[in-house]
Specification:
With 308 residues, this protein is an alpha/beta fold. The protein contains twelve helices and nine strands. It has a nine-stranded mixed β-sheet with strand order 4-3-9-8-7-6-1-2-5, with helices on both faces. Pfam families: ApbA, ApbA_C.
Amino acid sequence: MKIVILGAGAVGGYYGGALQSAGHQVGFVARGATLEALHTRGLQLADATGTRTVAALATTSSPALVDLLGGVDVAIVATKALPGHPPFGDVDLLPSTTPVVITHNSVETHYAAAELLGAQRVLAGVIRAYLTRLGPAEIRLNPGPLSFNFGPLPGTEPSPHTLAAAEQLAQALRAGGVECDNYGSERDIMVDVWSKAMFVAVAGALGALANQPMGYLRTQLRFALRTMMTEVEAAAHSRGVALPANVVDATLEFCDTQYAEATSSMHRDIAAGLPNELDAQLGAIRRMSAVGTPTLDLVHALLRARGA
């Protein structure tokens, strides 16, 4: 496949490197020090088995990347949904039939992408991995999952081209060592989007507020995790998303399997005073909910009061 990835940070870099290593043509839209590192050294990827370097094609715009690749089969938006930044880069300049996978940690931005690009070509993506950006184009995979699920938004009619590209991408990811579930049109990908939000938005926001990693949250603040997750569950149900009956318990059990020092990228960005995804993650859940979310509201307000 010929794959355009917008963003070569932790998510774009690691998953793009996996696809490149599996024999696919991958190009990155990047800038600044990351672009320079990709040109001079390539991607440097580390995991429990060691460190490897993967050659990378990169430039500053999607259309230029398509020219370098000689076409494009699918685009993956792997940037963060940060305030004041275009959430989808210049993906709208790609050929109008190009399927686009949105990987944002948000229950909201997939719909904005559908409005911008047309729902028939948009796939909502769900990434699960503890990734750390060590430097420009230098990424470490920490202990835990490595998966990438995606599917069309419910109630839409994806084009046959989009469905075919989705299955090709799923096979490519699996060949690169990534677990992948292609939801197709038969299942609701928003169940997975909201299930992940229950974990990542809650753990990220509570972790940032307490300035503590997962090991502390799941023991000393387990009651707060459960309360916030229960509110996310109610918010999803208010939107007609049929989360599994045991989703809160299952998510807490997933917390128990993570390594004790794990933190989310949102947590780390807030702690460092950097632009962050608080609004895209926790804010989006609050906006999308048709029921009250008092604990989520309080945590969001406290973090905003601290400058997040």
